[in-house]
């Protein structure tokens, strides 16, 4: 186990009815006038926003509303959110939604008092030392943004993350019942994203870390099973609860503790949904991950890890004479599970074309100047090859 730092200060308020405590939680932060931010309308239609407003007013606070955050949020809207909050005199930001609404709020929180542009924070032109208070009411189990140290914005086709422990919200209300209304496609995208956050960390280059290995394997097997249950029965509370908590644990740093992480397919996916914002993050990951693993397997890189992945996660019996066959079976099992969830298999299904590949590879490697760290270094040529394998 390598040395590590892990700072997870977010208060997690988990379970049925907890959204009704939003007002009290905001008041406890010393705020008087929260801005409640939501997405394209699902939280309005479900009546959640009305309940949140009632809770805020019952705590003696003034509630200001702002809807319209798009999936794969833009720097422009985060900037608008910050200016709107400043104009209305808001002293707290509450995100009601998924990763997109949360990231919009996280980045706006740096800019309300400073007048900065969120994209300048993303691109490290300015370095925040403080922010407005941030709370979350989570409505989709997926990104883990409700407790994570990252926030992702898109600006003129470029999708980039900003990581800092300051990004971690002050509290996250997580009621699994709020995810019952998710369309099956979004449930499935969330399951893929949760799996990916741990699978990527699992493909590490230092292998002697039994505790974190076992935690990761338990999380992955639980999410695979809970994903099946939630797809079959959307109001299965226990399945939704497992997914919701796993989403946070998968991306709060726990499953990366003490590890030198070896694979980050996320870098490739961000170019896909950066270029086409209509691509759901999880769907992009489902396309790129099996090909990404095949790229490494074909070069014999990370074989011991891929073998363990096949056995412990997907229950593949080891073939000691031909370990490469077990590795391949593990990758195929991943692909089959994503297909079972109804996820796309190719870039074309996502609306991406062959000519987009050079653009995406160029962007994620700064036109070839940057090498992405992985078990094998990935430059422009290698990322192009992986994208091509997904066509
Ligand atoms: O906008 P509304 O109408 O609310 O609809 C949303 C949206 O269309 C809908 N939805 C959410 N909860 C619902 C619901 N529909 C019905 N019932 C509910 N309870 O689902 C759609 C997707 O929402 P979104 O917030 O975009 O999904 P997700 O949580 O997957 O967030 C994706 C964004 O987060 C970034 C992604 O790149 C992407 O931009 N990520 C953020 C991370 C982080 N901050 O730590 C890490 C991730 O790896 C990821 O990159
Ligand atoms: Zn993700």
Automatic annotation (TrEMBL):
Keywords: Oxidoreductase. Pfam families: ADH_Fe_C, Fe-ADH. CDD domains: BDH. One of its GO terms (cellular component) is cytosol. The keyword Zinc-finger does not apply. Residues 9-176 form the Alcohol dehydrogenase iron-type/glycerol dehydrogenase GldA domain. It comes from the Bacteria. This is Iron-containing alcohol dehydrogenase. It comes from Candidatus Scatomorpha merdipullorum. The lineage of its organism: Bacteria, Bacillati, Bacillota, Clostridia, Eubacteriales.
């Amino acid at each position: 186990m390598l040395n590590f730092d892990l700072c997870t200060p977010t208060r997690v308020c988990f379970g049925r009815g907890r959204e009704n405590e939003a007002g009290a939680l905001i008041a406890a932060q010393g705020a008087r006038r929260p801005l409640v931010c939501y997405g394209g309308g699902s939280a309005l239609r479900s009546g959640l926003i009305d309940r949140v407003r009632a809770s805020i007013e019952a705590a003696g606070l003034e509630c200001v509303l702002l809807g319209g955050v798009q999936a794969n949020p833009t720097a422009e809207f985060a900037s608008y959110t910050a200016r709107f909050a400043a104009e209305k005199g808001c002293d707290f930001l509450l995100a009601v939604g998924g990763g997109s609404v949360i990231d919009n709020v996280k980045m706006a929180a740096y800019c309300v008092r400073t007048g900065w542009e969120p994209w300048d924070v993303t691109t490290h032109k300015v370095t925040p030392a403080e922010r407005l208070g941030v709370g979350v009411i989570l409505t989709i189990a997926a990104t883990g943004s409700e407790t994570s140290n990252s926030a992702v914005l898109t600006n003129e086709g470029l999708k980039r993350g900003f990581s800092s422990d300051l990004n971690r919200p002050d509290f996250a209300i997580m009621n699994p019942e709020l995810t019952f209304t998710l369309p099956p496609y979004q449930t499935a995208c969330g399951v893929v994203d949760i799996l990916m956050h741990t699978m990527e960390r699992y493909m590490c280059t230092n292998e002697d870390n039994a505790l974190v290995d076992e935690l990761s394997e338990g999380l992955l097997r639980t999410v695979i099973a809970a994903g099946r249950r939630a797809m079959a029965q959307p109001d299965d509370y226990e399945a939704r609860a497992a997914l919701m908590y796993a989403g946070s644990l998968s991306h709060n740093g726990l499953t990366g503790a003490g590890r030198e992480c070896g694979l980050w397919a996320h870098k490739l996916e961000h170019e896909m949904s950066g270029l086409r914002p209509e691509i759901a993050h999880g769907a992009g990951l489902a396309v790129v991950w099996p090909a990404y693993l095949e790229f490494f397997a074909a070069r014999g890189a990370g074989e011991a890890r891929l073998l363990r992945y096949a056995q412990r996660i997907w229950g593949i019996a080891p073939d000691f004479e031909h370990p490469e066959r077990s590795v391949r079976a593990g990758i195929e099992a991943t692909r089959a599970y994503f297909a079972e969830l109804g996820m796309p298999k190719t870039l074309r299904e996502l609306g991406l074309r062959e000519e987009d590949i050079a653009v995406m590879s160029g962007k994620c490697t700064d036109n070839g100047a940057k090498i992405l760290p992985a078990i094998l270094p990935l430059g422009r040529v290698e990322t192009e090859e992986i994208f091509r394998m997904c066509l």
